[in-house]
Amino acid sequence: MGNLKGKHIVLGITGSIAAYKAAVLTRLLIKEGAEVQIVITPAGKEFITPITLSALTSKPVISEFFSGRDGTWNSHVDLGLWADAMLIAPATAASIGKMAHGIADNMLITTYLSAKADVFIAPAMDLDMFAHPSTQENLEILKRRGNIIIEPGEGELASHLVGKGRMEEPEVIVERLKSHFAKKQSLQGKQILITAGPTYENIDPVRFIGNHSTGLMGICIANEFRDRGADVTLVLGPSSLSPKDENIKIIRVTSALEMLAACKKYISTTDIAVFSAAVADYRPSISFEEKMKREPKDEINISLIKNPDIAATFGKEKTDKQYFVGFSLETSSGEEEAQRKLRNKNLDMIVLNSLKHEGAGFGHSTNLITIFDKSGNKEVYELKAKEHVAQDIVDYIEKVIR
CA 391, CA 186: separation in Å to the nearest integer? Predict the structure, then answer.
């Protein structure tokens, strides 16, 4: 048995000539110890028979919503909860389009929409179909939503043309899944503290000083650490978002002082701290208990006092066994300012992003970052979905602490 032992894999098969590879793929997954449930589209059954697949898995192959005329039906919700991973191989252009736009007209797509686990997609189609802008845009949508695309290879296709669109070989796909699950345990036992979101500094019960942070970047980092087996505590400012994993401990706060106090409870036992929150630099010196009336004043003056710098506060107390990461959102002189903060706050690493770059910073599902560390290293990344940016950040941390 391999390191997929005991894993529940939903294997989705769509109507492509590459469906013949699904038999080999199924056999390899089972050889690695996985339990495989196949869901096939009606078109997929034209290329490979359910009898063959059922013989390999020792399970009925699911294709239709209803299994008979006696009222029994196949629950896509139960399948989505059962799966440790969903793999769609081969994935046609039509199915990719349906997944991207939520067109739930068959059992496979409804199962995909119900999946709680990571989804792997292995496209298979002719080279012009794969290169078509609609296919590429649909794949980008799926990537941004956290799906993992297993890029097709180049070779002779069913049309006898040669190009990119050939489904990746089953052996390579299985190795991708094995690496994925191995990574899920790479930080097991590590204690992670993450700050995320804005802070709101009350002027009165209805008004505050704040910023446009949604907390998405920090939440994605929390999800990624949890996916790798770490114990994660997330101190989250005012945000409508939440992590996907219910095992992430969430502490909701409003102000910078509340965030500081919450972090103090956990910092001494933390192995890795990521200070990604957009903490307000200042707060009103006086917060009124009652709503301030607009009349008869034509103007008001609000006196502000400096908030504590949370990353710098804990950086002074950091031990050699701890690894601290800061964030620097800039509009000018970005590199110099990020490196100054790295030194002055006694951080091990800092992540720079700039509002000058389109698609980066607050309010976007994407981000563009540069990482600096205390050893003088610099790593520049391209614009990516924040889920994938979180993977890059945690990959970098893992590489260093090992």
Answer: 13
Report pTM.
0.69
So what's the pLDDT on residue 1? Answer: 43
Which residues participate in catalysis according to the annotation?
211
How far from 276 is each of 93, 200, 215, 222, 402, CA to CA, in Å?
Answer: 38, 15, 8, 10, 22
DSSP 298-330: S-----EEEPP-HHHHHHTT--TT-EEEEEEEE
Give Cβ neighbours of residue 82 (< 8 Å, ≥ 6 apart). Answer: 8, 10, 37
* Alpha-carbon span 320 to 103, nearest angstrom: 52
**Alpha-carbon gap, residue 223 to 227, rounded angstroms:** 6
Task: Give the three-class secondary structure for 112.
Answer: helix
Q: Phi-psi bin for 102: left (phi > 0), alpha (psi -120 to 50), beta?
A: left
Q: Is 235 helix (H, G, I), strand (E, B) or coil?
A: strand
- DSSP symbols for 15-65: SSGGGGHHHHHHHHHHHTT-EEEEEE-TTGGGTS-HHHHHHHHTSPPB-SS
Q: Which single residue is written with the structure tokens 């100054």? A: 340
H-run or E-run covering 100: helix 93-101
Reported as a single tens digit per residue, the pLDDT across 227-279 is 899 999 999 999 999 997 788 999 999 999 999 999 999 999 999 999 999 99
pLDDT digits (tens, 9 = 90+) for 201-217: 999 999 999 999 999 99
Taking 90 as the threshold, does the pLDDT of residue 294 lie above it?
Answer: no
Distance, in Å, from the CA atom of 9 to the CA atom of 56, rounded to the nearest integer, reads: 14
